[in-house]
Amino acid sequence: MDWAIQVEQLTKSFGHLLALRGIDLRLRRGKFLTIFGPNGAGKTTLIRILSTLLRPTAGRIEILGMDLRDAGEEIRRQIGVLSHQTFLYNNLTPMENLKFYGTLYGLDHLKERIELLLEQVGLEGRRNDPVRTFSRGMQQRLAIARTLLHDPQVVFLDEPYTGLDQHAARMLEGLLGQMRSGQRTILLVTHNLARGLGMGDEVAIQVGGRILYREERGKIDPASFEERYFHCVEEGPAWDS
Amino acid sequence: MGFLIQLRVLLWKDLLSELRGKELISMMAFFGLLVLVIFNFAFEPGSAEAAHLGSGILWVAFTFAGVLGLNRSFLLEKESEGLQGLLLSPVDRGVLYLGKLGGNFLFMLLVEALILPFFALFFNLDLWLLLPQLALVAILSTLGFTAVGTLFAAMSAQAKSRELLLPTLLLPIVVPVIVAAVKSTGQILEGRPLAEVAQWLKLLLAFDLLYLVVSFLIFEYVVEE
Ligand SMILES: Nc1ncnc2c1ncn2[C@@H]1O[C@H](COP(=O)(O)OP(=O)(O)O)[C@@H](O)[C@H]1O
Ligand SMILES: [Mg+2]
User: What pTM was estimated for this model as a whole?
Assistant: First the structure.
């Protein structure tokens, strides 16, 4: 079928530590799934594996129907990753940062594309100032432009709200809403219930390297979800089982 | 052809970033000069002893500056969290390696060019006529040094005690390059013809190729956990 993400029995160990203990996950094209989990649940590890930065210990993964093991480079072309780290060069300006990444991706009409994105994230006035002079919120907005520069089919978001003030967080929320244009698939992982519950098609809970719960967002109410979440976190599989 | 464009933009990014900050080059040059100054006090300038030991001292200064530069080179990526940004882009890991190597090679060579006049000054040597030969040795040695150095810098950038890890890993492995560099520089400073130095240069070339090929091939496994 038309799956953007297919994960079967994914495990990842760091030495003795089992960070992922058999993740099964499927997400259709165009859908937006939010996975909630406490610190150490393995959310970042999952995102890093799905985005080809980390090798899985075992399991099968397909992104957009391509096997992660043999299509790494093609998959990287189709995905974008936004985390609390910005992947920007502080001494370079927004124009230069985006030109750098755009050239690595071999994009056509790069200049026009950069102009358009800078406008969308509201940074066109600061296009020639070094990134190091930017506030955290502005850096994160530029990081969004970087993430969307190559028009990725699948976007992974790892705690994108970390370090943002209320205003910047709301702006980010608006931009994430716009991100959902077309058939773009979005996977967001976060520990922040307050921020994450307000959007997306589906929600899931990951604890101790396992996904314990998944439901359509329309079918849950926030209060009982919160209760379920804390129940999962407390009762979830112990680390050393 | 695509990879040449990628290589060019990788280099452009490192050079531009350094041009704005100038932290790397100035720090490398500072420590290199510090080594020269210390040795300058240890030996009577212009003495036979100093001339004899000169090539060794020069390469201690170069190596010291080089290790510092390598330590910082991936720190730039870390500060900008760019290594992950780079690894997420559809660029062959070998091209990433070559791009990083290119920057490290150019920076170290530039610092060597900055240090050399002070060396001539402190040790009372007239180096003008020897410049082409010295440049050849410097290029060959620096290539071998940074070829392995870039690999190990990437490796130790992931580890906790990276400042210690890099020299402990790197220096033993590049000993052949440094020995050849010291020997050939010494012979050049003594005024021997290039033909006599040739055997050391061939050795350098062989190690350059070996280090380049091996590092290029294993870089991918170093940066992906
Ligand atoms: N590179 C690594 N080496 C060793 N352990 C790691 C590494 N990355 C993550 N871990 C461990 O794996 C577990 C899951 O981490 P992580 O995926 O960052 O969780 P989360 O993002 O949900 O907070 C943690 O116990 C963490 O210490
Ligand atoms: Mg995390």
Answer: 0.90
